[in-house]
Amino acid sequence: MSFLSSKRARTGLAAVLLSVGLAVGLSGCAGPQASDYAREQPKLDLRQYFNGTLDAYGVFTDRSGKVVKRFTVLMTCSWSGPAGQETGVLDEEFTYSDGTRDRRVWTLKRTGEGRYVGTAADVEGQALGEESGNAFRFGYTLRLPVDGRTFEVQFDDWMYLMDQRVMLNKAVMSKFGVRLGEVTLSFVKR
């Protein structure tokens, strides 16, 4: 009689697989949530911070931590619409250390207290965002061109307001749950 054909062995194998599955599933729930920062100051209001002109300075690091690209961003931001349902336009002009340039224009819509949805030409579907305390979490799938091909990669993007002029941003980029690299930025409001 084979090991896997016995009822006890199958039950034991099922229990092991269930335990592994639960551990993997629960590990995804263990990360920080925007609400963890509810009491942090200064309180972030995206509509106030991302309004006017901002400069950003950033790096992209690969999985090993090596800096692959440096870049600067000039952002022009504005909001319109009735209170509580405002729509913001964040126009980002990127200049990379290798001299290349790029542009992304975000449209953000406030959908409720601390909640936002965003769209951009190179974002698949809608980005979902939540602000709480001094933090903003933004999750989205970006269509990223690499060597003539386009890959869809997921971003878990966190922003932390340090004071009225400076915000720090850390975004983890992944594909199929595998971490590919990080983007680290500092925003400075003019």
Describe the 3D structure.
There is one protein chain. With 190 residues, the protein is mostly beta strands. The chain folds into 2 domains: 1-30; 40-189, Calycin beta-barrel core domain (Lipocalin, Beta Barrel). The protein is 14% helix and 57% strand. The protein is built from 2 helices and 10 strands, in the order ααββββββββββ. The chain has helices at residues 7-29, 46-49, and strands spanning 52-62, 67-80, 87-96, 101-112, 115-119, 123-132, 135-146, 149-161, 166-175, 178-189. A 10-stranded antiparallel barrel has the order 1-2-3-4-5-6-7-8-9-10. A hairpin with a 3-residue loop joins strand 5 (115-119) and strand 6. The chain is globular. The relative contact order is 0.16. The model is unreliable at 1-11 and 13-28 (pLDDT under 50).
What's this entry about, in short?
With 190 residues, the protein is mainly β. It has two helices and ten strands. The chain folds into two domains: 1-30; 40-189, Calycin beta-barrel core domain (Lipocalin, Beta Barrel), CATH 2.40.128.20.
Strand content: over 45%
Low-confidence stretches: 1-11, 13-28
CATH architectural grouping of the largest domain: Beta Barrel
Helix share of residues?
10-25%
Shape: globular
Measure the end-to-end span.
76 Å
Overall number of domains: 2
Rg value: 21 Å
Give average pLDDT, whole number.
88
Any idea what the CATH superfamily of the largest domain is called? Calycin beta-barrel core domain
Count of β-strands: 10
Secondary structure tally, helices = 2
